[in-house]
Amino acid sequence: MIKRGKHVCPVARCSVLVPNRLLMCPRHWSLVPHRLKREVWKHYVPGQEDTGYQTEAYNAAACAARDAAQAAEESKR
Ligand SMILES: [Zn+2]
Fold this sequence. Notes:
mainly alpha; two-stranded antiparallel ribbon; binds zinc ion
């Protein structure tokens, strides 16, 4: 069950619940290159998890970060 204010980590096969203000679980976030983390935070708008509004730039950065975490995860298999 999804608790209010939380979402499931977007990386495939990960089922960790994370607070909405965080993009993914801490373990996967740790796999994201610094450059991409900076992009995500640069475009993060405080409170966007409440309004549901995310900029295109944020979405693009979030996608890139998720893809990077996913790729890092798969390279370990
Ligand atoms: Zn995860």
